[in-house]
Amino acid sequence: MQNLKGKVVAVTGASAGIGKAIAVKLAKNGVKVVLGARNIEQLQSIVDDIKNNKGDAIFVKIDVSKKEDLIHFVNAAVEKYGTLDVIINNAGVAQLSRIDELDVDGWEQMIDINIKGVLYGMAAAIPIFKQQQSGHIVNIISTSGIKIVPTQGIYAGTKNAVRTISEAFRQESGGNIRITGISPGVVKTDFANHIKNESMKTVIQQNMEHLAISPEAIADAVIYAISQPKDVEIGDIVIRPAKQN
After folding, report:
1. pTM exceeds 0.90, yes or no
2. Is 120 tagged catalytic?
3. Which of 81, 120, 155, 224 is catalytic?
């Protein structure tokens, strides 16, 4: 925890769920947090709560499918706090359906947010990290890419793309810029609310009620990864309910 205090961390998808839990828990541990998402009202409320609890945070309205938004996001962190230590690429979306149902719009949405959004976040932060000769990228992935099941093919594909990109970058980075992939299982969030397929939405929501773990568990994994000494890199963490298959 001593390695956390004073760090500057930017979190995408920070207005709810896992991203919110990460931001709040980091702030409680003395981290200066930059929250990014599309919902200004929710972001403002979270930042107000952090400040009321003697934390330090700002927010930036971003759409991770727009690369210029991510550049503005990391620049806002540097302008406010003078540096950026960690970027957490957490924003994601799932549209679950059989592949032969041809939800091409859903495919494109997942590719734009789950893959391009992560790449844009990395691309925005890497020049800063190179200049500093230090930095840490945390990509929130999913157990969906580890166990492949029907209706999650494209979603799992986008998550496995991030897994592959993360491992390639780890090998290329030379150690100055660390990278961690965290794959959550079923977590209690509003994740299912954005699924268009009503039958799949119902299944996921029921699954959450009976199985889901708290998003704070994922925040704890993030804290573990980014609080390590500079010569230690936590590569991959899989965290899921004990009863999840």
Report:
1. yes
2. no
3. 155
